[in-house]
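Continuing the series of single-chain predictions for the mutant panel. This is the parent chain; the variants come on the following pages.
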Amino acid sequence: MLCVATSFTFASTPPLLSWLTANLRNTGALTLAIPMNVSLSQIGQIVGVWTFKTSEAPAYPTGLFTNAAFLLMGAMTVLVLHIIYTRRNRRLLPGEKIWEL
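Parent structure:
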């Protein structure tokens, strides 16, 4: 089971970076946004290792509930961004680049 879970650990990175670059308004922001995104996600993975305590084996409630909370927060963030981007796209002038989700 661990082999299957591990193979999908980094599967979300390319779509998230594509989403980020699609919504940048100029190329100058690109040189800062992608390294910041990758760096912050690596910090999250380091912290994630410490949430699975060996004393809580085999259930690991702290690690699993922490992961569930962050997944829920991520889903809510995407929903909020969808609403924001939809509203911003309504106000764009013809020919302007749309916000993508």
